[in-house]
Design brief:
Helix content: under 10%
Distance between the termini: 94 Å
Strand content: over 45%
Largest sheet: 7 strands, antiparallel
Shape: elongated
Number of strands: 36
Length: 476
């Protein structure tokens, strides 16, 4: 048998280490607390009776409204706030959980034989807290984590036996509209079939484990060279919480991040002085794709003979071609007026007569403020990034560039609040001649003909001025 060399053994051990590390990272979780409800007052009967005998409490938490928990997260425990002025009290507690389609409470307790038991043991109601400053006085860590599998309500039943006489214990109640619970306390379990419906429930805190994901990649320029010192920002707004994970690229343009909310969708922002920034607000998932690469641009070209949108943090070169500023819309007609002295931070449509190459290395794009023209219904929005924009609140984002889509560096896009088909019209008014120049942008038939008011014609007129393919023509 041929003996392996020490180098081969070293390589195999390294591969085994990497595999084990990846496996551990895949199974890694971060613990957080999720508070459900709003504290409103104190009640002495929830969630566990403090007298002798038995008690049972049942309530439902609606998905994403009451309990912002996602697929793959694990419920590991619950806790309740209140105050106990007397001595500690021991309780024998059993907790059941169930996910089901409905979040309605019946008039009797859910049979626990259909539920999953997550805890069965002794608990302590701790001494502490006051009515003015409640504290966490009851914590229950589940025997086994409960994995959340779907967007369904969580039904929870807590049963308490072996109660003992003691001082009253008060728990903070949540009286949110429509939130009810079932509760019963008695000498035996026969009373569980006729519970009391209460218009409140305890302010509950869930202990939740969320999957951790490691994301890495490269930031390169337009030539494929690594960009050093770029800031990579994965940002998440999740209900009342904001998560912000940032990293700076190394000398070769590489970065790595640890995301504790690895099962959520993120907005991504990448920036570096002297380059366009990258923005992706389309809710990016990292669960199954931990490699994210980005491209920043140190220069941008507006080509001759093409319609481009343009916005710069300095006044553009007026001699390059014709610039048009957006002034508003009349239904499906979007109107632009020509300007002879383009300004900084204003978006324009440019018909370039020669290639216009702009070097960005000397520009401070981080503090530049790209402008917006138009009104609420339709706006022309400047962009210093090569970003991707999501459709939000029925806004439709449309690039007017002939050579690129929205997302190319240093361009603008049209945003409007109503649906249009592909037969909308762009109207370009030349102030110096009083003649309109219209084009049927994004239409399937690029040879559509329009009159000087931007109205579409069924054919070429016999005489007079008309517009076709964005250019003026004369029929004699």
């Amino acid at each position: 048998m041929k003996r392996m060399s020490s180098k081969t053994i070293h390589v195999l051990l390294l591969l085994l280490f990497c595999w084990q590390t990846a496996a551990m990272a895949q199974d890694e979780y971060a613990t957080k607390e999720v508070v459900v409800g709003t504290a409103s007052e104190t009640q002495t009967i929830m969630p566990l009776a403090t007298g002798e005998g038995c008690s049972m409490f049942e309530t439902v938490f609606s998905p994403m409204i009451d309990l912002p928990v996602c697929e793959g997260e694990k419920l590991c425990g619950i806790s309740f706030m209140g105050y106990n002025p007397g001595a500690e009290q021991q309780r024998r507690v059993t907790v059941w959980l169930l996910q089901e389609a409905s979040d309605r409470l019946a008039n009797r307790f859910t049979p626990t034989s259909y539920m999953g038991k997550v805890f069965d043991g002794d608990c302590t109601i701790m001494h502490g807290g006051t009515a003015e400053k409640p504290e966490t006085i009851l914590c229950i860590d589940f025997d086994e984590p409960y994995t959340y599998n779907a967007f369904r309500p969580i039904r929870i039943v807590i049963g308490c036996t072996d109660g003992q006489a003691g001082n009253p214990v008060s728990f903070i109640a949540d009286r949110s509209y429509g939130k009810t619970s079932l509760f019963v306390a008695g000498d035996d379990e026969s009373a569980f079939d006729t519970p009391e419906r209460m218009p409140y429930r305890p302010l509950t805190t869930f202990k939740v484990d969320t999957p951790v994901r490691y994301v890495s990649g490269m930031v390169t320029d337009g030539n494929g060279k690594g960009v050093a010192g770029a800031m990579v920002d994965f940002r998440l707004h999740w209900f009342q919480d904001t998560y912000d994970y940032t990293a700076t690229t190394d000398a070769d343009g590489s970065y790595s991040l640890r995301l504790e909310e690895g099962n959520k969708d993120y907005c991504i922002y990448v920036s570096c002085p002297g380059y366009t920034s990258y923005e992706d607000e389309s809710d990016v998932t990292v669960m199954d794709n931990p490699t994210k690469n980005f491209t920043l641009y140190s220069s941008v070209t507006y080509p001759a003979g093409k319609r481009s949108t343009i916005v710069l943090p300095k006044a553009p070169d007026a001699s390059v071609g014709r610039y048009y500023a957006f002034v508003g819309n009349e239904g499906s007609r979007f109107i632009f007026n020509r300007v002879t002295s383009p300004q900084a931070n204003v978006p324009y449509v440019l018909f370039a007569e020669r290639d216009y190459v702009v070097d960005l290395t000397g520009m401070d794009l981080a503090t530049a403020q790209a402008g917006t023209s138009g009104g609420d219904e339709a706006r022309f929005v400047g962009c210093y990034s090569n970003g991707i924009y999501a459709v939000i609140n029925s806004n439709i984002h449309r690039s007017l560039d002939e050579q690129s889509n929205t997302g190319e560096a240093m361009h603008a896009y049209l945003a409007y609040h109503f649906m249009l088909d592909n037969n909308f019209t762009l109207v370009f008014n030349d102030d110096d001649t009083g003649i309109s120049d219209a084009s049927a942008a994004e239409t399937a038939d690029g040879g559509a003909v329009f009159d000087m008011q931007g109205r579409r014609l069924t054919g070429q007129p016999r005489r007079g001025l008309y517009i076709r393919d964005g250019r003026k023509h004369v029929a004699r």
